[in-house]
Amino acid sequence: MAQKFPCLRLFLISLLVSFGGSFHFGYQLVLTNPSQGAFLNFLHASFLMRYDTDLTPQAQKSIWSVIVALLFVGAIIGSLVLPLIADRVGRKNGMYISTSLMVVACVMSALSKSITSFELFTAGRLLFGVAIGLSLGLASLLLSESSPKQCRGFVSMTTGILLQLGIIAGSTVGMQIVFGSDDSWPMIYWVEIVPLIVLMVSLPFIDESPSFLVANGKEHEARNAIRNFYNCASGEVDKVLLEMKESQQFNSKRTTLFAVFKDNESRRGTLVGCVVAVGMAFCGIAVINAFAVKLFQDVGLSIRDASIANIGLGVVSFLGNTLSAVVIDKCGRRPLLLIINTLLIVSNVLIFGLLYSYRELELPALGYCLIAVIALFIFAFGMGPGPIAFFITTEMVSQRSRSAGQSCANITQMLCRGVILAIYLPLDGLIGPLSYAILFIVPLTAATVLLYFYLPETKN
């Protein structure tokens, strides 16, 4: 029971659950990045056919920014209903719902091209957001509650690792030479249905969260789940089961989304989790995920070179996330998060300086310096706030408040990301690189200072 790494079954389940959840979040975050030109052309053609209106390039970008941000509006809705789904039908059964919604959203998005309807595409992106908000929360709850505390960080980190694989996949299929052209972009969504079907077929073979089963009086099923997740003998199963029962007797009444702020312990853990989410959202990752290709083009790179560099960023982030999964249960959450946040602040100062310098000097070499700094930023993000933000709240609150606390953290993250994506392009058009400094240096610094004083260590 003192293993630092999960058993093979738990490891494979964590990969599978994350493959059906956070993978698609990463995929959706970036697929609009290299293929933005094709989507803008589709938006223009659809608007012209339906409303006989020829949109200006600036109007296209403004409308497209809102459509991109709708993913996070939907995720907020999904996070709001997370406690209801998670506590009523369970973590595992809830994933049937979120996965089904993703399949429907993929079909809607792909078919919007055939009928030239940007409205259907917009609705599909909103629905996808709802499903992602649900799946991220459900996966975090299931993995956190099903893993031994000694390797809980490693298991929870698979959420971030699969998110980075989704980013690499989305960056690749969204390239113009793959499926990012005017004619073939619907294939981006047909391809995405494949892993969703794999998850749906595999879910019947995955156990429900033992904590959820104990809370609902299903002790026999809970024993089997503990035995499978922990890979332990009957005597150890009884010990784990007793710990869960004692914890739930102390925290017998589940806390609702808004009542979580009435209890001092739950309120503190939830608020600290929300600060982690704010720092993650306002570190600049949302803009780099959505507009990295544009940033690289702004400093002189061709669309081809910018797209290749964008894929490289995904690979770098994956490496950072993988390294973090190995070290997090050794060094702890608090030092890792504080050190990495500080490194991200320094990286953002350098990114702002390079963007501003290129605007003034237009030296081609600055573009490649920007790629190097953003690569450092992405690697650091993958080691720290990227994956940690998805599970740290579940470790700071009790069983009764876990789904509500995680829901609040998810809502905070998605709200911040949505606001950033909606305002970044218009603000960048008004004040240029200064917009990057205002949005991503000041808020991250404030969040890091708060975490220094209030973030506890939750290892073990």
From TrEMBL:
* Keyword ATP-binding part of the UniProt annotation: no
Q: Which Pfam families does this UniProt record tie to the protein?
A: Sugar_tr
Provide the organism lineage as a comma list. Answer: Eukaryota, Metazoa, Ecdysozoa, Nematoda, Chromadorea
Question: What do the Gene Ontology cellular component annotations say?
Answer: membrane
Q: Which domain of life is it from?
A: Eukaryota
What's the protein here called? Answer: Major facilitator superfamily (MFS) profile domain-containing protein
Q: Does the keyword Iron apply?
A: no
The cross-references to Gene3D superfamilies, in alphabetical order and at most eight, read: MFS general substrate transporter like domains (1.20.1250.20)
| Location in or out of the cell | Membrane
Membrane topology reported for the UniProt record? Multi-pass membrane protein
In its UniProt entry, the species of origin is given as Plectus sambesii
UniProt-recorded Gene Ontology molecular function terms? hexose transmembrane transporter activity
Entry-linked SUPFAM superfamilies: MFS general substrate transporter
What keyword terms does UniProt attach to this protein? Membrane, Transmembrane, Transmembrane helix
User: Domain Major facilitator superfamily (MFS) profile, which positions?
Assistant: 14-459
Where, by residue number, does the polypeptide cross the bilayer? 7-27, 63-86, 93-111, 123-142, 154-175, 187-206, 271-296, 308-328, 335-359, 365-392, 404-427, 433-455
